[in-house]
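User: Sequence in, structure out. Go.
Assistant: Echoing your sequence, followed by the structure tokens.
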Amino acid sequence: MKRLPAVDVVIVGGGWTGLLMAKELGSRTPLSVVVLERGGPRRTEDYAVEMDELNTLHFRMMQDLSQETVTVRHTVSQRAVPLRQHGAFLPGSGVGGAGEHWGGWFPRFFPDTFRLRSQLREKYGESRFPAEHTIEDWGITYDELEPFYTRAEYLVGASGKAGNIRGKVIQGGNIFEGWRSTEYPTPPNKIPYVASLFQDATKSLGYHPYPLPAATISTSFTNPDGVSRPGCTYCGYCDRYGCMIGAKAQPTNTLLPVIRKHSNISIRTGSWARRIVHASADGNVRATGVTYVNDSGEEVFQPADLTVLASWTLNNNRLLLLSGIGEVYDPSTGKGNLGRNLTHQVSMSLMTLFFDKPLNRFMGSAAAGIRVSDFDSDLIDKTDLPFLQGGSFNVSNLTTGPIANFGILPPSTQARWGSDWKKASLYHYDRTSGIRFAGEHLAYKGNCMDLDPRYTDRFGDPLLRMTIDWHENERKMVEFMSKRAAAIGRAMGATQVVPFLGLHSYDTRRYQSSHIQGGTIMGSSPDRSILNNYLQHWDVSNLFVLGASSFPQNASPNPTATILALTYRSADAIIDRYLKRPGLLS
């Protein structure tokens, strides 16, 4: 194995969190920083020639499942089987990761998210918790995180409308949100026609619609780092595409311009991390670096004083499991923390709506739309309801490509093939929409991750095994929300309203979102978590783990704003405290 000269910091993963940490450490300190990214480089100018829907259907920006995949099962009594095709989630690959092909939604989490266990216990008592739950507090409060949310919003130039500035409620924004210190950096995106129908309908029903917070900016903006980007042209090529003009904030157009100015930061593409190397001395465990395979197939050891794990949730967990860092969670005993509290955003189109007029859904962006949060978090009393927490409804022009959406027909259509079917499909393509629901997924004892005993990757290393299923709490939540979504659809003027068939077993074939959380959860005690609230490993003080793997359970909003806010906070703690006195932060 080739041993390289030591560096100060090695970061595994070149997506949002890895590159943000590299930018902060490399621009604010003289530290030598190396980022290991197993995919290839990406450039904004390349996206102009890739606006082809077939690219998205062939998943060319996603992780290659022939190189590494996961295995999935519903319960610990089942044998897991490998995931051979992309379905329920879409992990990114290459510099920028999934931050290159994401939809650009940028909401904050609600304040109760961060002390969920305590708040539910105080309001409803222990008897109302779902059976075998493992819900946890985060070890941090919304108030502590708010300044870092603001920094994240100004990093990406987020577009939106505030609903609560320092406690003052503002109509037109999300009046249920936690307080914020400032208005959004840029105004809301233009509202697509079908989203305006949703806005009018929800208002008529007494709800409080507001524009989706978006990292696809509505107007030109220069962020505090001096990076300028243009406003959105609403071309429709957004979700699952890289933005060809840079209006959608992506790591390559937001972070790389700063990173390139600093010679102490280097990014090594084609670098497949296999282990975090660690050693014990005087009773303390320290990470000594990372072993990886480079693009020539050579095994390499990169020594470093500080290691940052910043890959996607599933990859973070797998690398720690392969490295033997942390006690593996055992669902039969509840012992161990590594791999526990696996959650996945409860996301689907609750209602498919058919109209008798065109909706112009081919225009806009994935994050141009309207959201309603009246049923989110714990905003409605659950005392007499069969579930806890909730979620939001929204309508946007997300994933409206003509190939993927061709052939979506109402039940009244009798033809199932031939010229009549084609005619009906052409007619309904731009007369079809949906009301999407994004809901919370609580943590349960049986939902977890470990290493599969049978299946391996191309290097012979065990694949990650996911054990996950929905529970009655989530099924009842979706059933309740479906009735509200049906009423909204009818108020929008839909001629036919077709409901989601219901949340049964976890289905890897249906795309839900790529918002998978847990496994390396943060908290206030090493007895119940892997990381402290600075995302520092309890047992290995020179190892920090970034991203949604730190979330104790899933909140309903999309996670990127929270991920970036936590990364900013972690970077500040490293620079202002850890570097001055290395050791466990308190």
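User: And one key feature?
Assistant: The mean pLDDT is 95.
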